[in-house]
Amino acid sequence: MHLERFTLIVDDYDEAIRFFVATLEFELVEDSPSSTNDGRAKRWVVVRPPGTTTGLLLARADGERQERVVGDQFAARVGLFLRVDDFQASYDRMRAAGVEFVTEPRREPYGEVAVFLDVAGNRWDLLGPRPYR
User: Fold this and answer.
1) Within 13 Å and on the Cβ side, how many CA atoms surround 102?
2) Rounded distance, CA 52 to CA 49, Å?
3) Which of 5, 9, 72, 124 could tie 55 with a disulfide, CB 3.0–4.6 Å?
4) What is the pLDDT along the chain (133 residues), one digit of tens a residue?
5) Is 113:106 a contact under the CB 8 Å cutoff?
6) d(CA 82, CA 94)
7) Ordered alpha helix ranges (H), the chain
8) What is the DSSP letter of 94?
9) What residues pair up with 32 in beta bridges, in sequence order?
10) 71 with 121: CB under 8 angstroms?
11) Residue 42 in contact with residue 68, Cβ under 8 Å?
């Protein structure tokens, strides 16, 4: 059993794709025309980190309620966790690409960590390798 995908509500498909693919170096798994339950046009956009199977469905906000949660889907908490093999290289590359980090890197029992914001303003942990015990 595994999580196949989860949804992140965004303002704009193309801006979100650029952030996740060009900036975070995720793979674009799918970008297909689709429609809402009531027949309006939308897109089915899935991205994921390379070598993984769990995808992130980028869903454009549809209506006032969804628009209100863009960037605050986790109530200002870190809600997403991106573990990388080389923390310093990933941190440096992401900063150079314009990713906004809201904390400085620090060491925790679970590895190096720094909090960054995605294209919508949601908080993510960038995590280094797990320390050896």
Assistant:
1) 12
2) 6
3) 5
4) 989 999 999 999 999 999 999 999 999 999 999 888 888 888 999 999 999 999 999 999 999 999 999 999 999 999 999 999 999 999 999 999 999 999 999 999 999 999 999 999 999 999 999 987 6
5) yes
6) 12
7) 13-17, 64-69, 87-96
8) H
9) 44
10) yes
11) no
